[in-house]
Specification:
The complex is a heterodimer of chains A (about 300) and B (about 260).
Chain A lengths: L3 E12 L2 E7 L2 E3 L3 E6 L5 H8 L7 E6 L2 E2 L5 H5 L2 E4 L11 H11 L7 H7 L15 H13 L5 E5 L7 H18 L2 E5 L3 H5 L4 E6 L2 E7 H8 L2 E6 L5 H8 L4 E3 L4 E4 L5 H10 L4 E7 L3 H8 L6
Parallel strand pairs in A: 4-9, 4-10, 7-8, 8-9
Antiparallel strand pairs in A: 1-2, 1-3, 1-5, 5-6, 10-11, 12-14, 12-15, 13-14
Helix pairs in contact in A: 9-10
Chain B lengths: L1 H12 L2 H32 L7 H7 L4 H20 L1 H7 L4 H35 L6 H29 L2 H28 L3 H13 L1 H9 L5 H24 L5
The chains are: A alpha/beta (about 300), B mainly alpha (about 260).
């Protein structure tokens, strides 16, 4: 197994009697892009705050780069992290360049990477423009730049594409993918745009009411979400034989009159093959579960 | 710590508020000097003789309480401004220790208070020295009073930077600091008024001790002519030490938004 960058065990945070994070155990390996999925108030941001040291935990434990949270060396481990939690940490009265210089100084680094990082997030032309005059999207890009300037090994990004236009969203996605592939940067990312997360993440964690419902790899999720066809027929006898003739190996029988087939064939091909074995199709429906549907199924519909 | 200091200093030097405060401090010192000159001139014209004001009198009058209010404003704007922009959050996230974050803020808040105090004292010594002269001025008293005042400024900075760090919000830090200073001044005035009415040695001792316990009281006592400079200095430095020790204990447990 790859090195664990972040591991939590029964991590909890209570505000009074309310559990914001309730016994979460999650594992993020080196090189993972971990999509953190949950509704507003589900506990995503609180967990990120605990891990980044902004909020104290109520129970459980976590390890960052193998360093337990109770160890004094956790501060050194955090030096390998870059993060945006909710809103980017920026000084409105300063320019983009001054903000990045401040970040470099805080981290005890030189300014050599400032120009490159500004270029990478598309803010190299902002010159003397102060951050207070930036659009929401520009601030978000600068926040990402500030998180990247220290060349972190682990990025924690809470809703990083908030306020970005579609082009900006694609740019951020490509930037994160490039960092992940070229530099092996591990990413923990939450976003309400689940379609965007599904294009990026290699692993998902689903959280609801402070509890981690499920952790699943992107591959496994794809298998669970893959496209299928549900056939309603007049029976199920000899269905397997028909599928064999069609060259379909992946299917499952749902009832005495229905089956789900995981293969791309034309309706007429299905009809012909089933007809040969004496079965007749009454209804055909396509079934394609995406991340959003999967999440909604996982949390039990839209009911709160 | 060095990196944090460097970043905080960069932010301070690139912020307008400190320069505005310094300009206001200078303007107030000039106004005080102008008023003293006016009083001296009017007195000599009306009474036919000079009041005999000196640098010492000007120095005592410079303890008008403004350093305390300047410290409240400087600490609140500098520290709470860092909260508002997310700067403190950003520092913690990348592994800066909370204790170091506070010490960096404390050092720079103290430096700001000291500079604002020095601006007032520079007016006293330069303008006062030129206009009123140094005749009959005790070098020991002048230097001791200067050091007591400087220590008091550091105490103000230590207390209010601790409060600002814990309260987090600019409005809360400003209101709390100003109300606390005002309330203490009021209590001291009431005690002083009561002291002249109550004929009790114990009560007088209590009032004297109480006045020296806080920077606000020290300011009033020094302006009124107290000459136990080293007691004032020691108490002020105790406030700095108390803030340096106690604030990190509270800040360590604080959940940040």
């Amino acid at each position: 197994m790859s090195e664990v960058v972040l591991g939590t065990r029964a991590l909890s945070k209570y505000y009074g009697l309310t559990a914001a994070v309730d016994g979460v155990s999650m594992t993020i390996g080196r090189g993972d892009i971990y999509g953190f999925v949950g509704r507003n108030g589900a506990g995503k941001t609180t967990l990120m705050r605990i891990v980044t040291g902004l909020v104290s935990k109520s129970g459980g434990e976590y390890e960052l780069f193998g360093c337990p949270d109770t160890d004094a060396a956790i501060l050194s481990a955090r030096r390998r992290v870059g993060a945006i939690i909710e809103t980017p940490a920026l000084y409105p009265a300063f320019t983009a360049e001054q903000n990045l210089k401040m970040q470099c100084m805080t981290a005890g680094r030189g300014f050599s990477a400032v120009a490159d990082v500004l270029r990478a997030v598309g803010l190299s032309g902002t010159g003397s423009m102060k951050v207070k005059n930036f659009s929401l999207g520009m601030r978000q890009r600068l926040g990402i730049a500030a998180a990247l300037i220290t060349e972190p090994e682990f990025l924690i990004l809470d809703e990083p594409v908030n306020g970005l236009d579609p082009e900006g969203i694609v740019e951020v996605r490509e930037l994160l993918l490039r960092l992940n592939r070229e530099r092996g940067v591990t990413v923990l990312i939450s976003s309400h745009i689940l379609g965007e997360l599904s294009k990026l993440a290699t692993k998902f964690g689903f959280i609801e009411r402070g509890k981690l419902l499920k952790e699943i790899s992107a591959q496994d999720l794809e298998k669970e979400c893959r496209r299928s066809v549900v056939l309603q027929m007049n029976g199920i006898a000899r269905f397997a034989e028909a599928m064999q003739k069609l060259g379909v190996s992946e299917y499952r029988v749902l009832s005495q009159t229905s089956a789900e087939v995981f293969a791309e064939r034309s309706i007429s091909a299905f009809a012909a093959a089933l007809s040969e074995v004496g079965l007749e199709i009454f209804r055909v429906s396509e079934n394609e579960a995406d991340l959003e549907k999967y999440f909604m199924q996982l949390i039990g519909g839209e009911e709160r | 710590m060095k990196a944090l200091l460097r970043a905080d200093l960069y932010r301070l030097l690139h912020s307008k508020f400190f320069y505005i405060l310094a300009a206001v401090a200078l303007a107030l010192a000039l106004v005080t000097f102008g008023l003293l000159v006016l009083i001296q001139t009017l007195a000599s014209e009306m009474a036919g003789e000079a009041l005999g004001l000196s640098v010492s009198a000007f120095q005592r009058l410079s303890f008008d309480g403004t350093v305390g209010y300047f410290s409240v404003i400087a600490s609140a704007v500098f520290i709470c401004g860092d909260y508002a922009g997310g700067g403190i959050r950003g520092k913690i996230v990348i592994g800066c220790g909370r204790r170091e974050i506070f010490y960096s803020k404390l050092i720079l808040s103290a430096a700001m208070s000291a500079v604002l105090y020095l601006i007032g004292q520079a007016a006293v010594f330069v303008l006062g020295g030129i206009y009123f002269g140094w005749e009959g001025v005790s070098a020991y008293d002048t230097v001791s009073l200067f050091i007591a005042g400087l220590s008091m400024s550091l105490a103000f900075a230590a207390v209010f930077s601790g409060l600002a760090l814990i309260l987090q919000k600019l409005s809360s830090a400003l209101v709390f600091g100003i109300v606390a200073m005002f309330a203490l001044s009021l209590v001291l005035s009431l005690l002083s008024a009561a002291g002249s009415a109550v004929d009790s040695r114990a009560f007088t001792v209590f009032c004297d001790v109480f006045a020296r316990l806080t920077p606000v009281g020290q300011n009033t006592a020094l302006a009124a002519g107290a000459d136990d400079y080293w007691v004032h200095t020691a108490v002020s430095l105790a406030w700095v030490a108390a803030s340096a020790l106690l604030t990190p204990l509270r800040f360590k447990k604080l959940d940040l938004k």
